[in-house]
Design a protein that fits this description.
The protein is α/β, with parallel strands linked by helices. The protein contains 8 helices and 9 strands. It has 2 domains: 133 residues, HUPs (Rossmann fold, 3-Layer(aba) Sandwich), CATH 3.40.50.620; 113 residues, Rossmann fold (3-Layer(aba) Sandwich). The radius of gyration is 19 Å and the shape is globular.
Length: 294
């Protein structure tokens, strides 16, 4: 396979909201940053609908996100509302490439079935690891050596068998050099869910590779996810993109913004008569303050 490094290709960026609620100013900050970096590079911006959470994602939230981002002035070149050469742009309609990636990882002996529940994993640990909200998997179902399992894909969770204490690094264009040690800073992570859907880690990595994304712009809270996805890209022989992890916006109390807090959603602020230029100015000011504090 002939691999082309991202830096030798035309710039391709993406925004990937999940339609599980209303977008807030934190989303606006990340997506405006992604669009600005595409514009500077004279590249292509892709809108991808990350709608694999069947319990929370709703079609009305997809349309609301499209409306809010258009209202802010964002323009993309490919997406669920425009189509394009990488269609479909909703993850729920892209299951076949994920299944193919799953089978490749299975053949390589890099994944294994896990019968542990979330509560069992939590009970096996004293506290979540400080680098990530997800606790480090204690290895209850991990085989001692790489192995190929013929267990049916559905009905059980599947985890990626990470290397032991390998140091992974990448240069983040916003946060500088990042490093993490496998099995110390993060553990064997979910690849496929028992409901026969891929995890965020697998779907995001596969889509970024197949859509030719050369730089991933997302929130700083996803830095640990990047280490996991680096292992997926390496296993699937895909060149990894560049990374730009944005500062996280917070509310007046310093709490990170969340979809459940509707007061700072773009939809609510629009309803209060705020203009797009006002919100963009507020986001830019907040980002500058975060960057100065860092």
């Amino acid at each position: 396979m002939s691999l082309v490094r991202p830096e030798s290709r035309a710039y391709r960026g993406r925004i990937a909201p999940s339609p599980s609620g209303r977008l807030h100013l934190g989303h606006a900050a990340t997506f405006l940053t992604a669009a600005a970096r595409v514009a500077v590079a004279k590249g292509t911006l892709i809108y991808r609908d990350d709608d694999l959470d069947r319990d929370r994602c709703r079609p009305e939230f997809l349309q609301a996100a499209l409306d809010d981002l258009h209202w802010l002035g964002l323009q993309w070149h490919e997406g669920p509302d425009l189509g394009g050469p990488n269609a479909p742009y909703s993850q729920s309609a892209r299951i076949d490439p994920y299944k193919e990636a799953f089978e490749t990882l299975r053949r390589l002996g890099l994944i294994y079935p896990c019968h542990c529940t979330r509560s069992e994993v939590a009970r096996a640990l004293s506290a979540p690891h400080p680098l990530d909200e997800e606790p480090i998997y204690p290895g209850t179902c991990r085989p001692p050596d790489p192995a190929t399992f013929k267990t049916p894909r559905s009905g059980v969770n599947w985890r990626f068998r990470i290397p032991v204490r390998e140091t992974l690094t990448f240069n983040d264009l916003a946060q500088g050099k990042q490093s993490a040690v496998a099995r110390e800073d993060f553990g064997d992570f979910l690849i496929w869910r028992r409901d026969d859907f891929p995890s965020y880690q697998l779907a995001s990595a596969v889509d970024d590779a197949l859509m030719g994304i050369t730089e991933v712009v997302r929130g700083r809270d996803l830095i640990t996810s990047t280490f996991r996805q680096l292992l997926i890209w390496r296993a699937l022989e895909h060149p990894e993109p560049a990374f730009y992890h944005c500062p996280l916006l917070t509310d007046a109390s310093g709490k990170r913004l969340a979809k459940r807090d509707d007061a700072l959603s773009i939809h609510t602020l629009r309803g209060l008569g705020r203009t797009a230029s006002e919100l963009i100015g507020e986001v830019e000011k907040n980002l500058l303050q975060k960057q100065a504090a860092d």
